[in-house]
Design goal:
It is built from two helices and 34 strands. The chain is mainly beta. It has a domain at about 125-320: Beta Barrel (Lipocalin). Strands 12, 13, 14, 15 and 18 form a five-stranded antiparallel beta sheet that branches. Strands 27, 28, 29, 30 and 31 form a five-stranded antiparallel beta sheet that branches. It is globular, with a radius of gyration of 21 Å. The chain starts with 6 loop residues before the first helix and ends with a strand. Keywords: Signal. This is DUF4374 domain-containing protein.
């Protein structure tokens, strides 16, 4: 795929064409909406005109196409399995973003880019160990300090058995601490944990207010049947020392070291009140897409299965669903996007709103189908959601097999009602496990892709 120059003007042209076409139809953002003839609908504001992008050079060689990335992922865009993103980033208060990316050579690099000047400001130094094994997530610790997760072999020669998290100074690469959360036991032993990030995604999030780091990863554990089954690991580290937070006389890990069985795909974020919200993709116990909240002092404090998988057998590694993403809204509710083919012609995107987040059992208050895919097309991994101004911005990729067809964006209000018509963004892609994020002033949403010119393409979507 090639990126065109003057993307913004190109998108304006697309929108004008779309508006001419819909002179004969009223179409909500949902493809399921009833169509009425000979009326015209105008979006509340020109979404296409708010999208701009710029490219920045990189070191190394980038994957050229999303198809190439999909073919290197675990079973492709329709798979329930999680994949770590080849690009992730954090947003800073000074209108810059720090982008961590990995090209064809699998070497990770971290650069600071100005959204104002549209250029790279500096490249940070990563510790040598940070390029070991699988990528298990990263975040900023503030003041040009970072934490990055990776897998490593253990002393018994078990490949990618251990989950490590290293904090470091970006200017020098000097390590602040390195913590292994599991993997030191021979994987032949019953109850041994290992294989972090295998067939799953992993993440690290930092809460500066409480100086706490949250870890959420997929892993495997050997059970008495001598089979390694997959689950999730949720826990917390002290932000200064890297020590795993525990409680009780047995020093039990605060969190859940076996969270959802066959937990395929992980998402997480800190809420405004310091709780750690997570999404889980369960294939067996439970067999559902779930939401839970944790605290770094008490562990799990609430949970709900927001979608119970209807078809397939327990533990068969097929769920007909793909985890999307979620965001805490300004009213305290949570918006979630995911896709499923249950009761649909093909896999479609759904928007769900959760409320009552303060209770032990949050409540699904709204659900709406966003797409209606026909034929062989389906909504695969990469679906996103973020609050943009007083609205919810939705983004999704459409695929046919592993071939990307398009990437679209749409708006909804904070109650989940869809607004206007979808806008297609040519040549872009939303990567799995990379969230769209708001700038520090809350005026724009940002995401980052590779382009076919061996560069990073930074997209900015303004609220108004």
């Amino acid at each position: 795929m090639k990126f065109k120059p003057k993307m913004k003007s190109y998108l304006k042209s697309i929108l004008k064409i779309n508006l001419l076409l819909i002179t004969f139809f009223v179409v909500s953002c949902s493809d399921d909406a009833e169509k009425k003839e000979e009326e015209t609908v105008t979006p509340e504001f020109d979404l296409a005109a708010q999208i701009s992008s710029f490219e920045i050079p990189i070191s190394g060689t980038a994957p050229n196409t999303i198809a190439e990335i999909a073919n290197s992922a675990y079973d492709g865009p329709s798979s329930p399995y999680g994949t770590t993103s080849v690009i992730d980033f954090v947003v800073n208060a000074d209108n810059t973003i720090d982008i961590l990316y990995s090209g064809k050579d699998k070497t990770k690099r971290l650069v600071r880019t100005s959204l104002t000047n549209k250029s790279v400001i500096k490249e940070f130094v990563l510790p040598a160990r940070a390029n070991s094994g699988r990528f298990l997530g990263f975040d900023s610790l503030g003041n040009d300090k970072f934490i990055l997760g990776y897998s490593a072999d253990n002393a018994f020669g078990d490949k990618d058995a251990a989950a490590w998290y290293v904090a470091f100074e970006g200017s020098t690469g000097k390590e602040i601490f390195a913590t292994r959360i599991f993997g030191e036991i021979n994987l032949a032993e019953i109850s041994s944990k290992g294989n972090p990030g295998d067939a799953g995604s992993s993440l690290v999030k930092y809460n500066s207010k409480d100086n706490v780091i949250a870890i959420y990863t997929a892993h495997t554990q050997r059970w008495p049947d001598n089979v390694r089954h997959q689950g999730g690991w949720v826990g917390f580290l002290d932000g200064t020392t890297g020590k795993i937070l525990t409680k009780g006389n047995n020093n039990d890990v605060i969190g859940d070291t076996w969270f959802y069985s066959h937990n395929f795909d992980q998402r997480g974020m800190f809420s405004k009140d310091g709780k750690f919200y997570v999404l889980a993709h369960g294939d067996s116990y439970p067999r559902a897409l779930g939401f839970a909240k944790f605290s770094s002092t008490n562990g799990k404090e609430g949970e709900v299965e927001y979608y119970k998988i209807k078809n397939g057998a327990v533990g068969d590694n097929t769920t007909n669903a793909t985890t999307g993403d979620f965001v805490e809204l300004s009213d305290g509710n949570v918006a979630i996007v995911y896709s499923t083919s249950d009761d649909r012609t093909n896999r479609d995107l759904k928007l769900t709103i959760l409320n009552s987040l303060g209770s032990k059992t949050p409540v699904v208050s709204s659900e709406v189908w966003v797409t209606k895919n026909e034929g062989k097309q389906f909504t695969g991994w990469g679906s996103k959601v973020v609050q943009l101004g007083d609205k919810i911005l939705l983004g999704w990729n459409t695929f046919e097999d592993k071939k990307p067809i398009n990437t679209k964006f749409c708006l909804a209000d904070l109650q989940g009602k869809l607004i206007g018509t979808p806008v297609e963004l040519p040549n872009a892609v939303l990567y799995p496990a990379q969230s769209m994020k708001k700038t520090a002033d809350n005026k724009s949403a940002v995401f980052v892709s590779f382009n076919s010119q061996n560069k990073l393409q930074v997209y900015v979507i303004a609220a108004e």
